[in-house]
Amino acid sequence: MNTSAHARMKLPDEQEVQLAARGQRALASCLSGKRKTRRVQLFDEADRAHEMELSISTLRLVEEILNGLAKGDAIRVVSVNAELTTQEAADLLNVSRPHLVKLLEERGTGLSSNRQAPTCSSGRFAAVQGREGASQCAGHG
Hints:
- The radius of gyration is 19 Å and the shape is elongated.
- Mean pLDDT is 79; it is low at 1-5, 113-120 and 131-141.
- The protein is of the alpha+beta class.
- The chain has 2 domains: 3-70, no CATH class; 83-137.
- The longest helix is centred in the N-terminal third of the chain and has 15 residues, at 14-28.
- Helix 2 packs antiparallel against helix 3 (56-70) and helix 4 packs across helix 5.
- The protein has a two-stranded antiparallel ribbon. Strands 3-4 form a two-stranded antiparallel sheet.
- It has 7 helices and 4 strands.
- Helix content is 45%, strand content 14%.
C-alpha cells in the first residue's frame, strides 16, 4: 500500500450505493444455514456465466464491504499480514502518525526497527489493529 493508493480512494456514487445496498441484502439472505460454502455465478462482459464456490466467511467479508459501500463509505481491504509504514497505518486509522507511534511504543509492539525507512517506521497491520480498538484513537491525532 502506498500514498498513491490512498489518494485513489473515492466515495461511491449514488448508483454504486444503491447497487451495493441491493447486493448486500441479496447476499445476506443466502448466508444462513449449515453449509460452509456457496456457489456463486458471475457474468462477464459477453454475458457468459462463470461459477465458483466460495466459503461463507469469504462471502461475509464481501457482505461487509457491500454494507459499507451502501452507507456511502469508501472501503479499503488490508491483509492482517500487510506491512505498513506508520504513516499508512495512521492514515487507515485516521490518527496522526506521532500519536500512532506513541501508542505502539507504549505497547511495545508493531514497530520493526530493522525495517525502518529514513523517515518512518513499519509494522504489521495486525499489530497496529491489535491495540484496544481503532475507534479509541480516532480524533486524538
